[in-house]
């Protein structure tokens, strides 16, 4: 459902991603791992055409992507939950989540708020709170709900576990595993937290300085014992 070939990304004169190849089947979940500055966020933003300038080929849902801007890619079924979550502080949780419905894809209805609460039960009790009243973990759940309401085929989560307490991280992993089972949705999760990534994905790509330095199953990753020391420990 996603096929990326020779993706290069640039911020101004800076060449950030170097020839990334990536494949993702419908219903599959992959992790993008890498240390600070490896290019994880740039990669997700490039798929959505959100910020960096890109070269290379991306096929999504059988369609070659060209110059489609981010909103058009959202309508085709991509959703990105950004690292900084971007919850509107003066809107209620319900309003924050409903903002995401504008990205519903062509010809397919968004979820209703009730359906989103069925998929993410922990946002149910929060619906009338204001954005600024949420804890970090609650903000993350709301940001995921906002991405999910458009019924995306591909949900991209940028470091969802960052800054959250361990007990919340466990809850978040369960949540993500529940929503990936719904409707054969595909997932890309970027992380520096290996345990969280392992729990929520089928296999992984490891990035370093904008290039893929390893891709394979978690079993293959574990058998290459030096990968963590070389590419993940700071
Ligand atoms: N808006 C921007 N303008 C210029 N350079 C940028 C911009 N955003 C990111 N970069 C650079 O691109 C490189 C990759 O950054 P990116 O944010 O993709 O890394 P990351 O793997 O997501 O890191 P982190 O784990 O810190 O989120 C870094 O060298 C960063 O300084
Ligand atoms: Mg990042």
TrEMBL record:
InterPro entries: AAA+_ATPase, ABC_transporter-like_ATP-bd, ABC_transporter-like_CS, BCAA_Transport_ATP-bd_LivF, P-loop_NTPase
Keywords: Amino-acid transport, ATP-binding, Nucleotide-binding, Transport
One Pfam family in the UniProt entry: ABC_tran
One GO term of the biological process aspect: L-amino acid transport
Keyword Amino-acid biosynthesis: no
Domain ABC transporter: 2-234
Recorded GO MF terms: ATP binding; ATP hydrolysis activity; branched-chain amino acid transmembrane transporter activity
Domain of life the protein comes from: Bacteria
Coiled-coil segments: none
Gene3D superfamilies, alphabetized: P-loop containing nucleotide triphosphate hydrolases (3.40.50.300)
PANTHER family the record matches: HIGH-AFFINITY BRANCHED-CHAIN AMINO ACID TRANSPORT ATP-BINDING PROTEIN LIVF (PTHR43820:SF4)
Family that this chain belongs to: Belongs to the ABC transporter superfamily.
Protein's UniProt name: ABC transporter ATP-binding protein
